[in-house]
UniProtKB/TrEMBL annotation:
One GO CC annotation: plasma membrane
Membrane topology field: Multi-pass membrane protein
Ranges where the Major facilitator superfamily (MFS) profile domain occurs: 4-380
GO molecular-function terms, A-Z: transmembrane transporter activity
Keywords carried by this UniProt record: Cell membrane, Membrane, Transmembrane, Transmembrane helix
Primary subcellular site in the record, as a coarse category: membrane
Matching PANTHER family: CHLORAMPHENICOL EFFLUX PUMP RV0191, PURINE EFFLUX PUMP PBUE
Gene3D superfamilies noted in UniProt: MFS general substrate transporter like domains
Protein name per its UniProtKB record: MFS transporter, DHA1 family, chloramphenicol resistance protein
InterPro entries documented for this protein: MFS, MFS_dom, MFS_Efflux_Transporters, MFS_trans_sf
Superkingdom: Bacteria
Length: 386
């Protein structure tokens, strides 16, 4: 595996830490900025919306630019937004920095995915994308808890400074170790043709549904575990870290399997995820629930390389824009899943309802995936290995 791919994974570690650490910093940020917790929570929504909108726009805007140079500019903007955010004396300025950071993050994801694909042979793409996305997994295991710890003990601004510092290290790594590759020589109009392909829309739909399945339950794991399963509140961070360990295992194994049998990998991960969700929906035993959380982490992130690989295979010769589209699709799922889980809770169905919601979304994912298999069989006129 080229060292450059690991450098890009380090960059994703910085981006992912920033994206998710806000959850643990909300109380301190709200108190310091003199806003309510819900208002502070809008900083998370601003980032998600910026990711969904920014990925395709920046992919199109940077399509003809050299990729390494583009990556460096986007990382530079990301670092500056965190410096400005750390110095911000008001909510409005901090909100603006989160939107700009999300745009830079979205653009980086799109270009980094296309760069990773260009750096490795076709039969190693799944593993390469596992390394890239693995940076996000490690961010959830180490970066987010570390950022939360810093925020709790030294103030949330310290966490922002730390992300800026890690981003600077990533900039140096990209500058020294990532070779220059070119963007889409055929132009925007050529890449936009990918949206005429039904297989692309199916691949993106499977991504969004699968991600919504994961986050419908994951977003509410803490109250589910404590209120329903009787887990002591002080154990929750450890269980969430265990989910991250499962995610790291899943993405490592899933990356290897995706190169050989992407559809089979997706079916297997979905089966494991649905089983874990069923256990979470029915059990009231804390230890059983914890085991299910570990399995859920393995399944949820084990599917990630195959999800990305299928989108790139469907897109063919439009790698930059499909990288942006997958970024948007993942974030659509990140947005819809928690919202649907919240709707179920607000309807008075209890915290186990988020697991049932995840199962419904998982069933929809299975249906969409089965349609995708049928479409590919019809298009290729040959059996698909499942």
């Amino acid at each position: 595996m080229p060292l450059a791919v690991f450098v890009l994974g380090l960059s994703v570690f910085a981006l992912g830490t920033s994206e998710f650490m806000i959850t643990g910093l909300l109380p301190g940020m709200a108190a310091d900025l003199h806003v309510s917790i819900p208002d502070a929570g809008l900083l998370i929504s601003a980032f998600a919306v910026g990711m969904v909108v920014g990925a395709p726009l920046l992919a199109i805007g940077t399509l003809r630019l050299p990729r390494r140079r583009t990556l460096l500019v986007l990382l530079g903007v990301f670092a500056v937004t965190h410096v400005v955010g750390a110095l911000a004396d008001g909510y409005a300025l901090l909100f603006a920095t989160r939107v700009v950071a999300a745009l830079a993050c979205a653009g980086f994801w799109a270009v980094a995915l296309a760069t990773t694909i260009a750096l490795v042979p076709v039969d190693r793409r799944g593993r390469a994308m596992a390394v890239l996305v693995g940076g996000l997994t490690v961010a959830n295991i180490a970066g987010v808890p570390a950022g939360t710890f810093l925020g709790q003990h030294a103030g949330w601004r310290t966490a922002f400074w730390a992300v800026a510092a890690v981003t600077v290290v990533a900039i140096i790594g990209v500058a020294l170790l990532v070779p220059e590759t070119t963007g889409g020589a055929a132009g925007v109009r050529h890449e936009l043709r990918l949206y005429r392909r039904g297989r692309v829309w199916l691949a993106l739909g499977v991504i969004a549904l699968c991600q919504a399945m994961i986050f419908a339950a994951f977003s509410y794991l803490a109250p589910l575990l404590t209120e329903t399963d009787g887990l002591p509140a002080e154990w929750v961070p450890g269980v969430l870290a265990l989910f991250g360990v499962g995610a790291l295992i899943g993405i490592s194994v899933g990356g290897r399997l995706a190169d050989r049998r992407p559809f089979a990998t997706l079916y297997g991960c979905l089966a494991l995820a649905l089983t874990a969700l069923l256990v979470l929906a029915l059990t009231t035993d804390a230890l059983v629930a914890v085991a299910a959380v570990l399995a859920f982490g393995v399944a949820g992130f084990g599917a990630n390389p195959a999800l990305n690989l299928r989108a790139f295979q469907a897109a063919g010769d439009a790698p930059t824009l499909v990288g942006a589209s997958t970024t948007s699709a993942f974030n659509v799922g990140n947005t819809i899943g928690p919202w649907l889980g919240g709707v179920a809770i607000d309807a008075g169905l209890g915290f186990p309802s988020v697991a049932w919601t995840g199962m419904l979304l998982g069933a929809a994912t299975l249906a969409a995936l089965t349609v995708a298999v049928a479409v590919q069989r019809n298009d290729d006129r040959e059996p698909v290995a499942v």
